[in-house]
Every structure is written in structure tokens, then in C-alpha cells.
Amino acid sequence: MPKKYVGKNILKVDAREKVTGKAIYPDDIYFDDMLYLKIKRATHPHAYLRRIDISKAEKLPGVVKIITAADIPEVKNFGLIIKDQPVLIGIGQKMRYMGDALAIVIAESKEIASKAVRLIEMEVEKLEVISDPLRAMEKDAPPIHQDGNILATHYLKKGNIKKGFAQADIIVENEYRTSFLDQVPLQIEAGVGFYDEEDEIIKLWAATQWLHDTQADIAQSLGLPKEKIRIIQPVIGGAFGKKEDISVHIHLALAATATKRPVKLTYTREESMIAQSKRHPLIIRAKTGATKEGYLTACQVEVIGDTGAYASSGLAVVHKGMYHCTGPYNVDNVNSA
């Protein structure tokens, strides 16, 4: 007979390990001879990088190596859906948000790596900061990407929208706005990387919500077959959408390959909030027609999503927002964009 669960007290499979502290999260993992990474990030949310000087940082005792874009010309952009985010910003390239990475510092300790990051000097050419999607869509707005500021446009049409509104006894029109939301999982982004020289495999202990997609994205960025990337999933420590995007993974892979030693990268909470994706804010302009009996006759909705500096999951989010615009109701006449 099938087991019955309703009304039963069911033991959560990972509850005991978590409440006793035995669960292994990414930042708990340690190897002998391990090196530590810190990332030099953008100093302005929209600017060209004109100069970067790592000479002082390189001379700091305990610094093993510093990787910049000049060291990895063969590495490609990455991205959850569209490959539009650089692994490192190079000279002459554009910073598009404060989370953009400019250099990977590899050192004998986290403290040394953090100090070295502060010694890196740079010059930037500042551009207008675009923080509002309505401003981004204006004709005179500076382009964030070469192809413009509109990532995608979707349309949904069903029935006859004019006929639907003509049938309505009441029409309600409003604009609604949701805000940026950081998911704030308890475990911030962290991971350990190791290059297995015998099998020529990069091994990563780092949490992700899309294990095989993350593996494929790392592989295409580094120009490697997928089987050369192995991700061992530790306890994820909460995600809620925040760990869909790549975070520490490619930087760990590059550092492990360059040094042939185990490497660890753990974000600070501040860094996590700056560098990783957020729940997308939306502007929803809705016009709804209904009869006196309470039947919906027409629904016309415009959904504008702000996906930030890079595509991330923005394509899917705004697409779902459009298709979910009528909520749980069956409406015969719909016009959504």
C-alpha cells in the first residue's frame, strides 16, 4: 500500500545534520596548502576602465598571483540565458554595475588577499548611471550594451481587446510597482576549487541551483568540454533564486588552474548583495474590464522588467509576468506586452 503523509510527522531528510551543525556548507570545506581569493570590483556602476595597475598588490608578501583580463583573452562571457557578462573587465571595456570583476587576487590568506585588493590602482571614465528602466528606454539614453538597453520584447494577444472593453460595465486602470529584493540566504556565495592534474579536471565545491547549466556555462566560458568540469554540490544554505547565476565558480576555476593548488573564495555579505542578481522589480500597467456580475471581459497589461546590468533570468521573468497577468482567472480578451 502507498504510504500516507497527510497528518503525519515526516522527518526532513537533512534536518538532523543542519540542527546539529554537521551539515557541510561551501565555506566549511578546507584543504591543506589552500590559497584564498578576493575580487577587485568596479568602483563606478557605469564607466570605461582606462587603466589598472596591480604592481603594488603583486609586491605584497603572501600574494601568489593576480589575474586580470589581459591574462585570459581566450575566456568568453557567461550568462544564465544570454552570454553577456564578462568574467573580468579589461582595459577599454565597460563596467556596467558595481559587481563587475576587474581582477582576481590569489594569496596565502584572506587577510592578505583583501589588503592586496585595496592596493590595486585604476582609472575610469565615468558615464551616466542608468538606474531606471524608463530612462533606459528613452532615445537619448546612453547604451549600456552595444545592442541597446532593451533586452527583449514579448507580446501576447488573445481574443478581441476592444470588444472585451466594450462589454465591460466597469474599467479599472492602475500602475503597480514592485521593488528590488535581495533574497539574503543564510549561506553567502562561497566555494572551493581544485585542479586535478592527473585527470585534467577542474573540481568545484560550490552551491548552485542549476547544476548542469552551471557546468555547461563554465565549460563554454573556459573553452573546455563539459566533462572537464566537475561540480560537487555542498549543502546549499538557501538560495531563493539568488544562486541561479554563476558567482564564484569561474574565478575559482581560473585560480585553481593557474596555481595548481586548492583555492577558496567566500563573498562578504556586502559583496553578495552588490555582485549577485536580485528579484527583478517590475512596473505593471494594468487595465481591466469587468461586468456587474463579476466576470472579467478584458485585460490589457504592460509589464516592464528591470534585469539590471546583465540579462540573468530577466528574459524568463518578464515572459512569465506577461503570461501570468490575468492571475488565476480565465479572460477571453487579453493584450499583454
Automatic annotation (TrEMBL):
MF (Gene Ontology): iron ion binding; oxidoreductase activity
SMART domains: Ald_Xan_dh_C (SM01008)
Alphabetical list of InterPro entries matching this protein: Ald_Oxase/Xan_DH_a/b, Ald_Oxase/Xan_DH_a/b_sf, Ald_Oxase/xanthine_DH-like, AldOxase/xan_DH_MoCoBD1, AldOxase/xan_DH_Mopterin-bd_sf
Sequence ranges assigned to domain Aldehyde oxidase/xanthine dehydrogenase a/b hammerhead in this UniProt record: 20-128
Pfam families associated with the record: Ald_Xan_dh_C (PF01315), MoCoBD_1 (PF02738)
Designated name of the protein: Aldehyde oxidase/xanthine dehydrogenase a/b hammerhead domain-containing protein
Classification of source organism: unclassified sequences, metagenomes, ecological metagenomes
